[in-house]
Amino acid sequence: MIVTGVTQLGYVEFETAHENAWLDLARTIGFQLVGQSDGRHGLRMDAERNARVFLRRGSVERLSAMGWEASGPDSYCELVQRLENAGAQPRERPDLLAFRSVQAVAEFRDPDGNTGEVYWGPSNTLRTQFRSPEHVQFVAGAQGVGHVTMAVRDMKASREFYTEVLGLKLTEVADVGSLVVTFMRAGTRHHSLAIAESKRREAATDHLMIEVATLDDLGSIRDRLQDRGHRLSRDLGRHATDGVISMYIETPGDFTLELGWGSYVLDDATWEHERFNRTQWSWGHRRPGDLLAAFVEEEEKSA
After folding, report:
1. Alpha-carbon span 286 to 121, nearest angstrom
2. Cα-to-chain-centroid distance, residue 242
3. Is the CB of residue 225 less than 8 Å from the CB of residue 236?
4. Which of 90, 113, 110, 109 is nearest to 160 (CA)?
5. By three-state DSSP, how is residue 123 classified?
6. Residue 19: exposure state from Cβ atoms within 10 A (0-12, 13-18, ≥19)
7. Residue 141, SS3?
């Protein structure tokens, strides 16, 4: 019997010592707050899942879990066995079933010690309409919550783990600045996970990307963020790899939240993974301070 790998990055969880700041940021973006209890919060972004972003009160700021969806109970059991064989120490977490709204979930560790979860059986009884408090439409569904980008200690070990154990598909490898980045996907989104080898030999989360349905959604969020005092770490720009127009927002942690629009959707029948060699427009993503410095420089030149 052929069992496929995970089908999507279904959810993520953040541990935070600044939950009020996170909740204010979430409301400003347009998430719907659900299921708050015992220092845990769920943030809803579509009609298909009760929540795709979870917040858990803690003492540090970190991405504390990535939830990978299996297609069913057989696939789930096969994935748990592969995790066991790979030394990822999977263990069942029945205490998370109600909050995650799933039938089964097991926690594991990737080669850098990051916490992952594999699950199956997301609630099929959810019938309430998703209502963003800011009337934002997000892109999720079969494409999952978005993507995570991480620095890893050993590119080869991490790539083999996520492709051979969890079953992610290689999208492409690209030179991004001075880094070599490997892009992998669980579904049709250009990538669910991107990894780059850290020159400092330290593993860390760089950012989570959430996609919105329209460019107007992205622009209106940008206005609200600035009106309510949230800082952008990088302003609007376009990536040549996945095609998104996006901006990066500072969070209480040492990682950022990317909000994007227009990510490529891939067809497995036609996409050929390769070393990135497409010629695409790439622009922007400047730091706000860079914009001010450029303006001052121009003013001084013309004085």
Report:
1. 41
2. 14
3. no
4. 110
5. coil
6. buried
7. helix
Q: Minimal CA–CA distance to 210: which of 188, 185, 233, 192?
A: 192
Interval 46-58: pLDDT, tens: 988 989 999 999 9
Note the residue count of the chain: 303
Contact 168, 266 (CB under 8 A): no
Query: What DSSP designation does 161 have?
Result: I
Question: Do 197 and 20 form a contact (C-beta atoms < 8 A)?
Answer: no
Count Cβ atoms below 10 Å from residue 232 Cβ, excluding itself: 18
CA 88 to CA 109: how far, in whole Å? 5
d(CA 288, CA 248): 11
Specify whether the CB–CB gap between 36 and 53 falls below 8 A.
no
Amino acid at 103: Q
Helix (H) or strand (E) holding 255: none
Q: What are the pLDDT digits (tens) for 21-72?
A: 999 999 999 999 987 777 899 999 998 898 999 999 999 999 999 999 999 9
> Which candidate, 156, 184, 173, 153, places its Cα nearest to that of 68?
184
Cα-based distances in Å from 275 to 90, 150, 262, 269: 33, 19, 22, 18
Q: What pLDDT does 278 receive?
A: 63
State pTM to two decimals: 0.91
d(CA 102, CA 124): 9
Q: What is the CA radius of gyration of the chain?
A: 19
Determine the Cα–Cα distance for residues 139 and 189; give it in Å rounded to an integer: 10
**Residue the block writes with tokens 């990055």:** 9
How far is residue 188's CA from residue 7's CA, in Å, rounded to a whole number?
Answer: 9
